[in-house]
């Protein structure tokens, strides 16, 4: 795919006067004392791509879990073709043509790609699908979604996060849904796969499939949304046609206030990072055999982005900075430099790492919110071998305010939080460890538009106080808004560096595809 193809507009959209495939009215749902949905309603036309937006915890996932037969509403009705539908189980929802892909990547790690794609379909397609046809259809679907589809016999655990998520989406598409629900399912996808998915979904919508798209990314909604329904505190507050929305209006509806999008964090910082001392140094590191060695230094108080198409080395590079592979990376301070030996050593030297895949790498679902938060600071909150939860709790309270984390009681299970709020707890965990260098692996996945600004502002403030931030992000706008400079990776090499004064979506995407905007960094 070329840059031009990435920027080309999708094809014509289907008529807005298409029949309703689904109509939900007056839905309410509580979990114990938490009211997740108060009064939610929603209608979906055949062939439309309908975006559902709202702040973290506003009830989007609860609404789609009701439509998917996972939760049962306390009140309200769902109709199809004027008749009430009882969606008792996920299987009933699927039998009604409603197929959902959730935010967390749900795959069976030790099974093949092919088995994962057809998982649970034996009763879905009553007659069963013969092996040859399974392979062919799986291959076709993956080839449309991925430029380099994995082998059908590859094991799921060997795939990158983005490819695993693509397999989850392919599994849904192979069922030929009437209604496809993507619940933040695009957030783990790399740039290229997301573009391919949007083309595929637009094509299928043109053939009559209705799509519900939950995303925190306005660019995605602008790109393919036909209508948008905004949720606030468990209520659906408005549905807008494409011609009637702009971002400020959507944010206003989401927050219920004249809460305009905040200006960039970078402008608020005072320190000039280029005059600060080096704190982390990478020397002659190769991301793959035969690739050019990388030499780069990070300074106190700067925010550096890592970018590139998925799988081009930026993920591996970030992990190297956390001591995953010994050799070549040193922590530098006034006393000299120390080579990192392993992640534990890196942590001891003040380097914290926030992992990308919340589900498998960061969250401990059997633990409470407080326990999940306190993991990195237990030693700090202990005296003479005795741990004081009260200390952790007061620290959590500080971050709850700064990052606007919506939670009930700190002792509640972490799984009672919405996805975005879980992610904020993990970020707070590592900020609380008070690192000198913070490594973030795509941290704003699943975080709503205002909460992102809260995080940017906090990172900007902390950088102003001397924290060095290195952040891998799959969001082009995030780089443009936040970073002092961005390192772009291509084919396991550091391809170029773009400083903030040259950063724009065009220069960055151009660099992904091999266009340089500045001199080579090693010139
Ligand atoms: N199983 C559960 N038990 C208790 N509370 C829950 C449960 N599921 C959701 N909630 C609560 O219901 C509210 C709505 O959550 P929901 O996941 O629907 O929000 P969301 O809009 O999808 O958020 P996000 O954008 O962060 O994914 C939140 O306050 C959440 O904590």
From TrEMBL:
UniProtKB keywords: ATP-binding, Nucleotide-binding, Repeat, Transport
InterPro entries, per the entry: AAA+_ATPase, ABC_carbohydrate_import_ATPase, ABC_transporter-like_ATP-bd, ABC_transporter-like_CS, P-loop_NTPase
Record's protein name: Sugar ABC transporter ATP-binding protein
Coiled coil regions in record: none
CDD domains according to UniProt: ABC_Carb_Monos_I, ABC_Carb_Monos_II
MF (Gene Ontology): ATP binding
Pfam families on file: ABC_tran
Gene3D superfamilies: P-loop containing nucleotide triphosphate hydrolases (3.40.50.300)
SMART domains reported in the protein's UniProt record: AAA (SM00382)
Occurrences of domain ABC transporter (ranges): 22-258, 274-516
